[in-house]
Design a protein that fits this description.
Elements: E1 8-12, H1 15-32, E2 37-41, H2 48-56, H3 58-62, E3 68-72, E4 74-76, H4 86-95, E5 105-106, H5 115-130, E6 144-147, E7 172-175, E8 183-186, H6 188-192, E9 196-201, H7 207-214, E10 230-236, H8 237-240
The structure holds 6-phosphogluconic acid (6PG).
């Protein structure tokens, strides 16, 4: 298990350089593996440039799209075409612009009856892909988990003071009441079951929360993550400059 103090920090000059670096890092990880390559995608605004970069540049021609599988770190419980939908953002930036087989996107949008039903359906799909109901740290669920960092220290939809922080017996949890729209989120066990976890952090507004995160402030949900694999912070200079 990797703690914050063992995380690798890379500081890039600006958001475009950050996107290019993480795209190259992702491509190297994908090509180094000879079979299925599973990525948990972050929502929010920061990763959009990365997703566009993967679809638009030399990465597109050398990425192993046929064996790469794409999952959601979290999703808002809104229609797939809603401006708040992570699926919509990733569809616009990546899924509609790269040769990704529909069967490699998990899950494809559905119209579940409730956040709880959506969480249960997603968990079933994860377990089916993984091939077991219990996570084995020697066989992580994901090859890469991409995460963002909220100004309150949340990541995915693990918000401070919410019940999902304590869920260790499920892979996906419904989050109701923390935000205007209900969410579903991977829980700590699922997020941690990854060969590599990478936070993408950009902008001067993230400077203070990144400093707290790197100091291991465990009041922050992001600081409590203990991946079975490696932990990376990719930050631009605006976010990484220390006060
Ligand atoms: O669905 C979401 O919103 C994300 O999963 C969330 O955890 C996000 O990564 C952070 O809020 C940072 O968002 P920004 O990249 O927009 O700052």
């Amino acid at each position: 298990m990797t703690g914050i103090s063992d995380a690798k920090l890379e500081v890039l000059p600006d958001p475009d350089a950050l996107a290019r670096r993480v795209a190259a890092w992702l491509l190297a990880a994908a090509t180094a593996k000879q079979d299925r390559f599973a990525v948990a995608l972050s929502g929010g605004s920061t990763p959009r440039r990365l997703y566009e970069h993967l679809a638009d540049t030399a990465c597109r021609d050398s990425f192993p799209w046929s064996r790469a599988h794409w999952f959601w770190g979290d999703e808002r419980f809104v229609p797939a075409d809603d401006a708040k939908s992570n699926y919509r953002m990733v569809r616009e930036a990546l899924l509609s612009r790269a040769p990704i087989p529909a069967g490699n996107i998990h899950p494809m949008p559905t119209t579940p009856s409730s956040p709880e039903a959506a969480a249960s359906a997603y968990e079933r799909e994860l377990k089916s892909f993984y091939g077991a109901d219990r996570l084995d740290s020697a066989q992580p669920l994901f090859d890469v988990t991409l995460l963002g960092l909220g100004l309150d220290g949340h990541t995915a939809s693990l918000f401070p003071g919410t019940p999902a922080l304590g869920v260790r017996d499920r892979w996906v949890a419904a989050v109701v009441g923390a935000e205007p729209e209900a969410r579903i989120t991977l829980t700590y066990p699922a997020l941690e079951s990854s060969r590599r976890v990478a936070f993408l952090i950009s902008g001067s507004e993230k400077r203070e929360i990144l400093t707290r995160l790197r100091r291991g402030d465990e009041s922050l949900p992001a600081a409590r993550l203990r991946p079975v694999g490696s932990l990376w912070f990719f930050a631009d200079a605006a976010a990484a400059a220390f006060p």
